[in-house]
Every structure is written in structure tokens, then in C-alpha cells.
Specification:
- The chain has twelve helices and 38 strands.
- The protein has about 750 residues and is of the alpha+beta class.
- The model has no long low-confidence stretch (mean pLDDT about 95).
- The structure holds (2R,3S,4R,5S)-2-(hydroxymethyl)piperidine-3,4,5-triol.
Length: about 750
């Protein structure tokens, strides 16, 4: 998968479907040639290097008016030597200079891929699944070694990249900027696609045409954020969900990030993604190393949906890991929206019993079970049960839930503390705060300084004790505020630029320790819903709470956008009460179920409050999920109709062998006397015959017809005259089962 032309110093990573080409320039810097659909691996490619005399350019060699880094397409540009675009790295010495020039030293090719110390990353299970090319570079002046790692995957059309810096000099250096990936693409005729939003409307799809200058999304909040996801895609003007070129960049990281596309004056596009350089500075002592998080770029000639398919395959199979990666996820019920802080054990048991009757497998006790946590002003940090609410403690409640035949799960917010807590009273110095400055709060809470091992240890001890004593099968790991006044009392002045990153390393470390001690524990990540829904967390927590907005109609956009990068297996999606707590919208239980069923499914309500008829629907939904959950988790996902573009949202999940599928179609507002509608499906076998079944429809058709002519939607969701028994006419959703019969 890696071919090297030693004479031309050209490296070609390929897997039969994509190619990535780079080369060593005469000056020793690394140049970029190509990323896209596969090229012949025996070819010669140096003629792709374009350089010509340009006015107002700075050239690196006397007497040469064509060699300028400003014009050459590079792999990992440094600051200060004739390139005036944003660099991928910037290193500063004790002399104050920030100039750097990397020169090629050599390369190594290995099977599979190495792990990144302390960081989440994709992995291989056997060496044949991927090949890694490591290219060693050096800034001789400073004796700084920089190693670029490129992994190409056999089964995914993507390349994973990271960079390692090692200071072999005698003096400390400061890394001011160390992106994970940078690439200079030959043209900039793209639209940028980003996933942006806010709390309760995370990951909306936003598209903008690239123009000269910089287009960027970022976070400087300490978490990857509700506002922007660590992701950026490029698409051509005519690219659709199903056709045309799309290139996706995703960062496997949960902290401050920057994803940026810069169009220069010759229509060259520089894309980079990595730790946000704003507020970042890492001191590299002699012999010390720094490794960037990993970034993944995927190529699709089959549109945006094709790009998502590549991410889904890689992240589901070779980023998520451990006991739960391939196991069927339990149907869960969570008490938060039903009770908030106001519950006692008796209520919880009633709640759980009803859930058990409906076939639900896991009960999750959310916030409010510990310390004096009767509201959000106190308790965080004291991870011991509140025995006024739970007389038998967590151990007692967990046993009672297990006796009902369910598993028990528990909420934690390990990174946070309230001032009104025993933990804070004993360790007021354990919080992130800048001496002499105000300490801002978020939801009345403060952020523990996870850049310090002793702070992580103190929380680990408490969690470990509880997880060892009580039968806890699942934890929901929440994080409800961003970091402000970032500063750690434990580090000197010239290391304060490391704290945001060290904080995230501390979060990863605590996850790693718990996974090590309790390998069968299922962790669901959460950050006020989807404030840290990123590829980094997926390495530790195979599922995440997608959004605090649980309204089915709001979720159409949130889940649709989330699916650009993240597989259904990791998207926590629950049926909640109607009218919905966040938006006050009343929707039928069937619609709420349909939308939540394409995710890691569960409930967020007190089922005792439902009518007998609704309970029967809940039972059907749970049974459907149990039957289809392995298809949902492992099947191919197709976005069919975008809620960002019209009154309908539709998607399809197809078993990888094409023999079984289901389609969810949601009509947002009702229509009268609407047109006949058909919905072309994807991923079926053209020559096989399928049976199509929904509440109002049942017929047989060949795969080619279903994919060309389309699935007939002449039913309640098309706007045909509605019958009163269908209930609410707005917010109708139907599920179509499609199964091979011949
Ligand atoms: C925010 C989460 O997103 C909610 O689901 C819930 O767990 C609350 N925190 C509890 O405080």
C-alpha cells in the first residue's frame, strides 16, 4: 500500500481506490502532489510540481526565481521561510526566533499502525489492514526532529495523520502551533461543509463557498463544543449526497481545535486541522517529545453520503473499541427529563418496573443521586450516594434494579465541582482558576484541574470505589460547562499554554483507567448533550448523548448532521415525553420512536404516565429495536431527504449484504392533497425481489425498481387525505421494512 520511488523521492500511498502522493523537494521540504481517486502506482509524478516566476514573491535560493514556498504545494509548511500563508507548525527558541526549516532525513514503512501515547486514535487488528509511512524531518539549526506519520487503510478510503516532535537540542523549545494535518490542494473550487450550531441544536449542516482568504471553525472552550464540530469537508459545486467529489477532515480530539481552509492568490487551497493554536504553547525540553492528536481525511467520489460511509466504517470498527464495540447495545431508560433532581428510591423503582414490562434492559439514574445534590448548586465532587433519597445507597438500588432483571447505569460529571461540596472544601486549590482573577462559573460549577495527576487520582479513587462495590454496568459521563480563566496552579508560567491540552489528556487518562479496571462497563459520553460529541470521545465511549434536545422534529436535523461523520451506533437517541420539555411540541409516540430508533436507542420519560395504547407502541418499538439493532449499528446508512431542505426527512439503513433494510420517512408539517411521491432507495441488490411493509402499505418489488423508480410513498406521509385515527397530522413518521424474498 506504500510505493516509494527512491530516485524521485516520491511516496505513493494507495489501496486500489485512492492515492495520496507526496515528494521530497530539492530543498528537503516535503511537497504535496495529489490526494484523490487512485492513480497508477507505477507512474512518475514529479511533473505535477507547478512553479513559475511570480512577481512580489520571496525566493529561497539566490539566482533562482521560481523556488518559493509561497508557491509550492507543501505537506506541512513551517513559518518564516518565504511562505506567507498560515503554517502548520511554529516553533520558538529561547532566542525568540520563530523561523524553522525542515529537511528530509529518511523514511520507514511499517505494517498496521502505532498507537499514540495517551491519545485516542484509529488502530488495526492485524498488520495487513493498513500500512504506515513515517517520514523523518529535521530542523538542523535547532536539532528538532519532526516525524510525519501517514497511515493508509485497506478497507477505508482514508489516510490518518499525526506528527511527533522530538527536541534533540540542548535548549528548551516552545511549540506555538502543531497542527495534525495540513495539505495544499491544487485548486480551491470547493464548498466548505461544516457542522455548527449551539446547545440543543448541534451539528447543523452549513455550507459556504470558499473564496480567497480563510474559512475556519474552531473551539477555544476546552471542549470540542456545541458550536462547531472538529470536522470540515470539501465538496464540489455539483456534489450531491450520492455523486461527485467530497473530502472530509476529522480530528480525533475532544479539546480546543481549529479546522481551516485557506485559499491563496493562485487558487491553491491549504486545509489544516489540529489543536487550536490560540492559547496553545508547549514547552519541549531537551529529549522531550510531543505528539499531535490524529486527524483523518477521507475521499469519496460518491458524494457526501459516500464520505460519511468511509468515516462510519473506520470509526465504528477501528476507533471505537473494547467489549461494546461489536455488541448489541441495551435499550435504556433514563430518569432525567422525568424527575430531574426530585426523586427517591421508591419512585425510581416504579419507573424501572414499568420499563422492564416494556422490555427495556438498562435503567440509568441521572444527576441528583449523590452528595447534597438537590439542585445544581451543590454536590459535584462528592461521588457518594445521598442516603435521604437512596437509603440503601447505590449498591442497594443497583441490586434492586438487577433483581427486576435489568442492568443498572449511573450518571457522573467527573471533571466538575461545586463550591458547596466536601470535595471542594477539602481541595479548593484543585480547580482551574487564574490567581488574582475572578473565577467564572457555568451552571454554578467549576472545572477541576485535570491537567494535574493528583486531581484525576482523587476522582478516580471515588469512582473506582463505587464501581467496585455496586453492580454498575453503564456510566453516563457528563461535562456541563466550558473552561474559563484557564490556568493551573501546578505548572510554571512558561507551561500555562499546555493546560487546555493537558486537561484533555487527563480526561482521556481517567477514561483509560476505568476501561482498564472495568472492561465491560459501557460508557456514554455527554456534554450538556452534544458539546463534546467528537471522534476522540468515541475511542473511550462507544456511544454519546447526541443532544439535550430530545424533540423528534428537532432531532431530524441534529441526527442528520451528526451522521456526516459519526455512525448510528454512537448516536444516543431517546424517546421523550410529549409535549417536549425543550420546545413544547407535541408529537405522536410513533414519530418519536421512529426518529430515535436510528441510534443507540432508549427512553427519557416516566412510562407510568403513558396510556395503555402508547405502552403497546413502546413495546413494539423496543421489540423492533431488538430485532434490528445489529442492522442499525452495523448497516450502511443513507441520507435520502434532508430536513435542511424541505418538509421531509428520510433515511435508510441497509444490511451490508443488501438483504434487509428499513427506511424512516418523516413529514414535518401536514399537507392536503399533496403530490404522489416516490423515494429512490440505495444499497439494495438490483436483481433481488423484496417485500416492502409499512403501516399503510405492503407490496413486492425488485431492488432495481426500488432504487430507480423508488419506494412508493402513497400513504399518510405523502399528504394523501388523512384519516382521523392516524392522530396528529403534523409530525407524521413512517417506517418501511424492506426484506429480500427471492
Ligand atoms: C446535561 C445532560 O445532557 C442531561 O442529559 C442531564 O444528564 C443533565 N446534564 C443532568 O445534569
Amino acid at each position: 500500500m506504500v510505493t516509494v520511488n527512491d530516485k524521485e523521492k516520491v511516496f505513493h500511498l494507495h489501496n486500489g481506490r485512492i492515492s495520496y502522493l507526496l515528494y521530497v523537494m530539492e530543498s528537503g521540504q516535503l511537497g504535496h502532489l495529489y490526494f484523490g481517486k487512485a492513480l497508477n502506482s507505477a507512474g512518475s509524478y514529479l511533473h505535477m510540481v507547478e512553479k513559475a516566476y511570480r512577481p512580489m514573491t520571496t525566493y529561497i535560493n539566490e539566482g533562482d526565481l521560481t523556488t518559493s514556498y509561497e508557491q509550492l504545494r507543501q505537506e506541512y509548511p513551517c513559518y518564516g521561510t518565504s511562505d506567507y500563508r498560515y503554517p502548520a507548525m511554529e516553533v520558538q527558541g529561547s532566542d525568540g526566533s520563530r523561523i524553522c526549516k525542515l529537511e528530509y532525513q529518511g523514511y520507514e514503512i511499517m505494517e498496521g499502525k502505532k498507537a499514540l501515547p495517551g491519545l485516542p486514535a484509529t488502530y488495526t487488528e492485524d498488520g495487513a489492514e493498513a500500512a504506515t509511512l513515517e517520514i523523518r524531518m529535521k530542523d538542523g539549526w535547532r536539532n528538532l526532529e519532526v516525524v510525519f506519520s501517514y497511515t493508509i487503510f485497506r478497507d477505508v478510503d482514508g489516510v490518518a495523520r499525526s506528527v511527533r516532535f522530538v527536541n534533540h537540542g540542548k535548549e528548551a523549545l516552545w511549540l506555538n502551533r502543531a497542527m495534525s494535518l495540513s495539505i495544499d490542494m491544487p485548486d480551491a473550487d470547493y464548498y466548505g461543509v461544516q457542522l455548527s450550531g449551539a446547545w440543543a441544536r448541534e451539528r447543523y449542516v452549513k455550507t459556504r463557498e470558499l473564496t480567497p482568504g480563510v474559512t475556519a471553525v474552531s473551539s477555544m472552550r476546552g471542549n470540542s463544543s456545541h458550536q462547531h464540530n472538529p470536522f470540515l469537508a470539501l465538496k464540489r459545486k455539483n456534489t450531491t449526497e450520492r455523486s461527485g467529489e467530497a473530502i472530509g477532515f476529522s480530528l480525533i480530539y475532544s479539546g480546543n481545535f481549529l479546522a481551516q481552509a485557506e485559499v491563496d492568490n493562485y487558487n491553491v487551497l491549504r486545509v489544516m486541522i489540529g489543536i487550536n493554536p490560540f492559547g496553545f504553547q508547549w514547552k519541549l525540553e531537551p529529549d522531550a517529545a510531543f505528539v499531535t492528536p490524529e486527524a483523518v481525511m477521507v475521499y469519496s467520489g460518491d458524494g457526501l453520503n459516500g464520505m460519511s460511509g468511509q468515516f462510519h466504517r473506520l470509526y465504528r470498527n477501528r476507533l471505537a473499541r473494547g467489549y461494546w464495540r461489536d455488541r448489541e447495545r441495551p435499550v435504556l431508560i433514563n430518569n432525567w427529563e422525568a424527575t430531574q433532581f426530585d426523586f427517591v428510591e421508591e419512585d425510581i423503582l416504579k419507573f424501572a418496573k414499568k420499563a422492564k414490562e416494556c422490555g427495556i434492559e438498562l435503567f440509568v439514574l441521572d444527576d441528583g443521586w449523590f452528595g447534597k445534590r438537590n439542585d445544581d448548586r451543590r454536590g459535584l465532587g462528592d461521588w457518594k450516594a445521598n442516603t435521604d433519597k437512596l437509603p440503601g445507597g447505590i449498591e442497594g438500588l443497583a441490586e434492586k434494579i438487577e433483581a427486576l432483571g435489568m442492568k443498572f447505569g449511573l450518571w457522573f460529571e467527573p471533571e466538575m465541582v461545586n463550591k458547596d461540596s466536601d470535595f471542594y472544601r477539602s481541595h479548593p486549590d484543585y480547580v482551574i482558576a487564574t490567581p488574582g482573577r475572578n473565577m467564572s462559573h457555568g451552571r454554578n460549577q467549576y472545572v477541576l484541574d485535570f491537567s494535574r495527576k493528583e486531581v484525576v487520582d482523587a476522582i478516580y479513587v471515588q469512582m473506582h470505589e463505587l464501581l467496585s462495590k455496586a453492580k454498575i454496568s453503564y456510566i453516563k459521563w457528563d461535562m456541563n460547562r466550558s473552561i474559563s480563566e484557564c490556568y493551573s496552579a501546578a505548572y510554571p508560567a512558561d507551561r500555562q499554554g499546555e493546560i487546555f491540552h493537558r486537561y484533555i489528556l487527563g480526561v482521556y487518562d481517567l477514561h483509560e483507567r476505568l476501561i482498564h479496571d472495568f472492561p465491560e462497563l459501557l460508557i456514554e459520553s455527554c456534554s450538556s448533550g452534544g458539546g463534546r460529541f467528537d471522534a476522540g470521545m468515541l475511542y473511550y465511549a462507544p456511544q454519546g448523548w447526541t443532544s439535550d434536545d430530545s424533540d423528534a422534529i428537532e432531532r431530524l436535523k441534529i441526527q442528520y448532521g451528526t451522521s456526516y461523520v459519526y455512525p448510528l451506533s454512537c448516536m444516543g437517541a431517546h424517546v421523550s415525553a410529549s409535549p417536549n420539555e425543550q420546545v413544547g411540541r407535541a408529537t405522536p409516540i410513533g414519530t418519536r420512536g421512529n426518529v430515535a430508533l436510528t441510534g443507540a436507542f432508549g427512553y427519557e420519560m416516566d412510562l407510568n404516565k403513558l396510556s395503555g395504547e402508547e405502552i403497546e407502541e413502546v413495546k413494539e418499538q423496543v421489540a423492533f429495536y431488538k430485532e434490528y439493532r445489529s442492522l442499525i449499528a452495523k448497516g450502511d446508512f443513507y441520507r435520502l431527504l434532508s430536513p435542511f431542505e424541505g418538509n421531509f426527512a428520510a433515511w435508510e439503513v441497509v444490511r451490508q449484504d443488501g438483504r434487509q433494510a428499513f427506511v424512516t420517512v418523516t413529514r414535518i408539517l401536514s399537507e392536503t392533497n399533496g403530490p404522489y411521491r416516490r423515494l429512490p432507495l440505495c444499497g439494495l441488490s438490483e436483481e433481488r425481489k423484496y417485500h416492502v411493509e409499512s403501516r399503510y402499505l405492503s407490496y413486492d418489488a425488485y431492488g432495481d425498481e426500488l432504487m430507480q423508480y423508488g419506494l412508493i410513498l402513497e400513504d399518510k406521509s405523502s399528504g394523501s387525505p388523512t384519516d382521523a385515527s392516524a392522530g396528529c397530522r403534523d409530525f407524521m413518521s413512517l417506517m418501511y421494512k424492506v426484506s429480500v424474498i427471492e
